[in-house]
Amino acid sequence: MPIHKKTLSALPSVRQLRALVAVYHAGNVSMAAQELSVTQPAVTLLLRELEDRLGVTLFDRSARRLRRTEAAVHAVGYAERALAEMEAMAVSMAELSGAHRGRVRITATAAVAQALLPRAIGQLKAVHPGIKVEIDEVGPGDFVEAIHAERTDFGVGTLEAPTPGLAEHVLAREALVAAALPSEQFRGGAAMTWRQLGQWPVITVRSGYGIRARMEAVAKEAGVALRIEHEVSLLGTAVAMAAQGLGVVVAPPSILVNERRLVTRRLTRPVVERVISVVYKRDRSFSPAAEAMLAALREVVGPGT
């Protein structure tokens, strides 16, 4: 029968196990009582209760000494292992509560994972080297489903619309920029209107993916027909293609941080913000390890982002 199906009255207590181990190794009740910092009658009572619970005699008693029975020889091994496991559990839980170790599972869209998470994990490891991080990179269309399915502690990305059961903590609000290789026509630093963007070949994700819907809505509002030259599934691919001179990519600045060949122009009329958030189930609590990872993300993003 599994242990969790037995009644508590059928199982030895921790105090009884400690009494067994102490008497077994000390050879008498007096020394065991000193080791346990209790009285001799208390140790004797614990042993008798344990024998009654197990249905065996553990020690043959005489006026001068206790003699271990065969049952005691077998029982003490179980007792020592059980006490060691309990101590290990206490130490392990203390380490988890102090974020000295643990495991964090994060779901992120690929572009965000590449831009933010390596730096945040480096920050985390500098303070909490025992914490392990698992990253599940998903497409924008699978982001919400993965969090709903509880395959993760939290997600890092963009929640396109309020979603029942999910909450978000905003990490960064970034104004979208246009990025391309520097040229006489495309100089970094100056602002660019969406109407001006319409003059350039654009590389972007397919319709229905991530940032594309927002771009189309803004272009329509500005009366601009975007020149979509290349369509891809992942924003990171669009960035890499722009770095090869194949067109202009529209993205949050944080997504471009690892691509130093590109120069950026802030898009205006209108200015469009892209929100990057920690997204999680409303009824889910964060472990100390997850809290430490969140702190590292905030540190990397910075208050001014």
Automatic annotation (TrEMBL):
<dbReference type="Pfam" id="PF03466">
    <property type="entry name" value="LysR_substrate"/>
</dbReference>
<keyword id="KW-0804">Transcription</keyword>
<keyword id="KW-0805">Transcription regulation</keyword>
<keyword id="KW-0238">DNA-binding</keyword>
<dbReference type="GO" id="GO:0003677">
    <property type="term" value="F:DNA binding"/>
</dbReference>
<comment type="similarity">
    <text>Belongs to the LysR transcriptional regulatory family.</text>
</comment>
<dbReference type="Pfam" id="PF00126">
    <property type="entry name" value="HTH_1"/>
</dbReference>
<dbReference type="InterPro" id="IPR036390">
    <property type="entry name" value="WH_DNA-bd_sf"/>
</dbReference>
<dbReference type="InterPro" id="IPR036388">
    <property type="entry name" value="WH-like_DNA-bd_sf"/>
</dbReference>
<dbReference type="InterPro" id="IPR050950">
    <property type="entry name" value="HTH-type_LysR_regulators"/>
</dbReference>
<feature type="domain" description="HTH lysR-type">
    <location>
        <begin position="12"/>
        <end position="69"/>
    </location>
</feature>
<dbReference type="InterPro" id="IPR000847">
    <property type="entry name" value="LysR_HTH_N"/>
</dbReference>
<dbReference type="InterPro" id="IPR005119">
    <property type="entry name" value="LysR_subst-bd"/>
</dbReference>
<protein>
    <submittedName>
        <fullName>DNA-binding transcriptional LysR family regulator</fullName>
    </submittedName>
</protein>
